[in-house]
Amino acid sequence: QLELVESGGGLVQPGGSLTLTCTASGFTLDYRAIGWFRQDPGKGREGVACISAVGSGNYVDSVKGRFTVSRDNAKNTAYLQMSNLKPEDTAVYYCAADSSPALCYGGSTHYTGGTVGDYHYWGQGTPVTVSS
């Protein structure tokens, strides 16, 4: 079975930190870009961060300086470290993977992590709630 599984979500106070984990089974994350998306109820799924196949991270402005993406190909796993969390970060977070070389390339001034339709593999999501 080919799947991505996220974990690590939960309830955290404003200013707190969480690390989300995305583990692949049935296929390798090698040579694939990994995107992190989030979705509020009633809203569309938006990309917030990505990491290229060679390990370059890219972020939307709203999370720059607070979120960090990383990957461990030996563990077939990617991570999203989130710090200084804000109530507006509350959402269900998803990881996604795809082998397209057009995803998450470096050297651009805008976010290159693509959109929902650009990714082939998706996780089931993990909820993050930032509240006091």
Task: Write up what this structure looks like.
There is one protein chain. The protein has 132 residues and is an all-beta fold. Helices cover 0% and strands 45% of the residues. The protein has no helices and 11 strands. The protein has strands at residues 3-7, 10-12, 18-25, 33-39, 46-51, 57-59, 67-72, 77-82, 91-98, 121-122, 126-130. Strands 2, 4, 5, 6, 9, 10 and 11 form a 7-stranded mixed sheet that branches. A 4-stranded antiparallel sheet has the order 1-3-8-7, with no helix packed on it. The chain is globular and about 40 Å long. The model has no long low-confidence stretch (mean pLDDT 95).
**Which spans have pLDDT < 50 for at least 5 consecutive residues?**
none
Strand content: 35-45%
- Which class best fits the helix and strand makeup? mainly beta
CA-to-CA gap between the ends?
A: 39 Å
Q: Would you report the number of β strands?
A: 11
Order of helices and strands: EEEEEEEEEEE
How many helices? The count is: 0
Roughly what is the average pLDDT, rounded to an integer?
95
Radius of gyration: 14 Å
Q: Major beta sheet, specifics? A: 7 strands, mixed
The share of residues in helices is under 10%
In one word, what is the shape?
globular
